[in-house]
Write a structure and sequence with these properties.
This protein has eleven helices and no strands. It is mostly helical. The longest helix is centred in the middle third of the chain and has 32 residues, at 137-168.
């Protein structure tokens, strides 16, 4: 009981709320990456992908401020997100039995972790800021880990819901790819190197860049999918 009495629950609640509010895109990525896995492999993909992403997010929190100041990191991260969104959109639904092969599962987990790391560059600042209310640095890390662990079941459940909807409404795949394009566009406009080159006002165009990124990913993905269908007929 003494342990629970020592916990600053207001900080824990803040971290959980922040992670849940910013975790919607994570659930979408997890669902998109796992949608072509065999049903028996989907659970493994969701759990291992989420676990890897959460562990790396804890590490990112410790270096959040430094990482976000590295020139071109957000630019490269945004470009990577655009590529992931495109690849997830044009991925063909495979019906062969080899869907449950280990390499398919590993590829899904790798996609989840990479996308989550990129998308978490901004998110971890908010989490670190909430944990920063605690004086002890060791306790700060403890609060971050505890808050993230509590949010894991909800993110996993969200992924399963999105997967359920994707199976019935394939258009959600296109919307999910567009979401990644939106995040990527906004991220690229806040890169320190570009801000230094073009001024602080560049960040004001983040929304426009997000719209362009979303439309671009969806349009290119749709064109490639149609071209592939024509080539296969």
């Amino acid at each position: 009981m003494e342990f629970f009495a020592m916990i600053d629950w207001s900080v824990v609640i803040q971290i959980i709320i922040i992670d849940l509010l910013l975790g919607g895109d994570n659930a979408v990525v997890i669902a998109l990456a796992c949608r072509n896995l065999h049903p028996n492999q989907r659970r493994k993909g969701i759990i291992w992908g989420t676990a890897g992403a959460i562990i790396l997010r804890v590490i990112l929190v410790a270096f959040a401020v430094t990482l976000l100041q590295i020139p071109f990191l957000k630019l490269v991260g945004g470009a990577l997100l655009l590529w992931i969104g495109y690849k997830l959109m044009v991925q063909h639904d495979e019906e062969e039995h080899n869907m449950d092969a280990p390499d398919k599962l590993f590829a899904a987990i790798k996609t989840i972790i990479i996308a989550d790391i990129v998308m978490s560059l901004d998110n971890v600042l908010a989490i670190a800021g909430a944990a920063g209310q605690v004086d002890n640095s060791v306790h700060q890390v403890g609060y971050v880990i505890f808050g993230l662990l509590v949010s894991v079941p909800i993110i996993v459940a969200g992924s399963k819901i999105v997967l359920y909807l994707i199976d019935r409404f394939p258009l959600i795949v296109t919307a999910g790819a567009g979401l990644l394009g939106w995040i990527a566009g906004g991220m690229m406009m806040t890169d320190p190197a570009l801000i230094k080159q073009f001024g602080e006002g560049l960040a004001d165009y983040a929304t426009i860049a997000g719209i362009v990124g979303a439309i671009g990913v969806m349009a290119v993905g749709e064109l490639v999918k149609r071209s592939s269908k024509k080539a296969s007929t």
